[in-house]
Amino acid sequence: MTIKINITTVETIQSVEIEGDIDANTAPTVQEKVLSLVKSDSKILMDMTKVPYMSSAGLRMLLSLYRQTEAKKGKVVLVGICEELQDTMSVTGFLDFFTIVDKYDDGIQELQ
Predict the structure, then answer these.
(1) How many domains does the chain have?
(2) Phi/psi class of residue 20: alpha, beta or left (left: φ > 0; alpha: ψ in -120 to 50)?
(3) Domain that includes residue 72, residue range
């Protein structure tokens, strides 16, 4: 399965819409595109409402994004994480790193 990544800018926020599974095959592509957005004070909104599945490779990608963004005093907000993924992120402690919201507009508000 292929993955679709659509990056747009809303004022000072980089909005990344992802569609498809994030697994060992697609995580490197997602990581390459998203990490290129990390700059000083960057605000990144990851819209994941169309991501039905994420493997450990996807979680590693998110952790890498979090670390690089934090190092540059930026912020990442995740939108629309499916319940199964939220459960996995809770068990692994990943929820502690991210702000997670249900709706896109709430994510924009978090970053403004």
Answers:
(1) 1
(2) left
(3) 4-111
